């Protein structure tokens, strides 16, 4: 009798384990990093071109509604209004395009991290500044958007 109960318990555990494994595989399969990478690449192209078109609406739309940016030399800026004001300042400085080059993308359904380099360009593709960035992406409204964005220049610090 004990042997029969033991066999039933092992069988029941086996079914439970298989059921949990199937659920985990199904949940994991809903996230596809290659698909997210493609969405990030498309967003980066649109984002970079917003300056030539002076299109702050599309620019701000690349960020989540509660996004924060962390520019070099100033406190972090959060929210659509602040990010829009930052965009306006960059346009006034003569930025016409940002070329973003992704080095790596990693993460999961709760958030993805992108690292890479940037090139701020003016008229005729003249490079104003080059540097590196880290962006935390988050899905919002079915689209992957920038949630936290930090960058810094490769230029040496000014002499004191």
Structure description:
The protein is α+β, with helices and mostly antiparallel strands. It is built from 4 helices and 6 strands, in the order αααββαββββ. Strands 2-1-6-5-4-3 form a 6-stranded mixed sheet. β1 and β2 form a beta hairpin. The longest helix has 28 residues, at 2-29. The chain is globular and about 50 Å long.
Estimate the global geometry from the Cα principal axes.
globular
Radius of gyration: 23 Å
For the terminal residues, how far apart are their CA atoms? 86 Å
CATH level 1 class label = Alpha Beta
Averaging pLDDT over every residue, what do you get? 86
Number of helices: 4
Annotation, overall tally of beta strands = 6
CATH topology, by name, is Nuclear Transport Factor 2, Chain: A
The amount of beta strand, in percent, is 35-45%
Topology summary:
Layout: H1 2-29, H2 33-53, H3 56-61, E1 63-70, E2 77-78, H4 80-92, E3 97-108, E4 111-121, E5 127-140, E6 143-153
Parallel strand pairs: 1-6
Antiparallel strand pairs: 1-2, 3-4, 4-5, 5-6
Give a short summary of the structure:
The protein is an alpha+beta fold and 160 residues long.
């Amino acid at each position: 009798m004990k042997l029969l109960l033991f066999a039933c318990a092992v069988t029941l555990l086996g079914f439970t384990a298989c059921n949990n494994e199937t659920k985990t595989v199904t949940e994991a399969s809903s996230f596809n990093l290659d698909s997210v990478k493609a969405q990030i690449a498309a967003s980066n192209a649109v984002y970079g071109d917003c300056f030539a078109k002076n299109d702050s609406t599309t620019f701000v739309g690349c960020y989540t509604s509660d996004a924060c940016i962390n520019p070099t030399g100033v406190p972090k800026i959060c929210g659509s209004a602040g990010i829009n004001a930052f965009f306006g300042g960059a346009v006034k400085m003569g930025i016409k395009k940002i070329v973003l080059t992704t080095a790596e993308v990693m993460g999961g359904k709760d958030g993805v991290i992108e690292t890479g380099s940037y090139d701020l360009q003016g008229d005729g593709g003249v490079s104003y500044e080059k540097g590196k960035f880290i962006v935390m992406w988050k899905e919002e409204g079915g689209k992957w958007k920038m949630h936290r964005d930090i960058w810094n220049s490769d230029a040496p610090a000014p002499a004191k």
